[in-house]
Amino acid sequence: MSYSLIEKVGEVIELFVSIKGDINRTSRTIIAVDKDGVCDDKFYAKDPQRSILITTIKSYNLAKEQDIIMEYGSLGENIVMDYNPYDLCAGTHIKIGEVTLEISQHCTLCKSLSSVDSKLPKLLKDNRGIFANVIHAGFIRQGDSISLLTS
Q1: pTM of whole model > 0.85?
Q2: CATH of 4-150, one of 2.40.33.20, 3.30.750.24, 2.40.10.10, 3.40.140.10
Q3: Tens-digit pLDDT profile for residues 106-144
């Protein structure tokens, strides 16, 4: 299928992977992704509809407004961007660098966020992130442009 760029909407701020045996996310300047998700991530090939978790700085700003200070990566995401993708519908395609992703679903409420702060799950109920699966594999780099696509 051929896609056209609709518009550039933002850029990648941070990238993360989860390493087996480590409760903290590991920051990366580049990640490799394929149809099974983020290579080297402990969730790789677990669930193709939830292979990549994307969040926005908006989520962190909402927490900060409630005096909840967190470092990027605290929400379990693979990608932090300066664009708010939470209004995108499932099936929407986005291009990040050389990679094409398809939004698969919104992130559900996670009780594990209460380990950061008891108010966090309710505060970020609809603002934690979105899941995407990989349509076109490649590398995503910190600073890559994010564009919306149309088929």
Answers
A1: yes
A2: 2.40.33.20
A3: 987 777 788 888 888 888 988 889 999 999 999 999 999
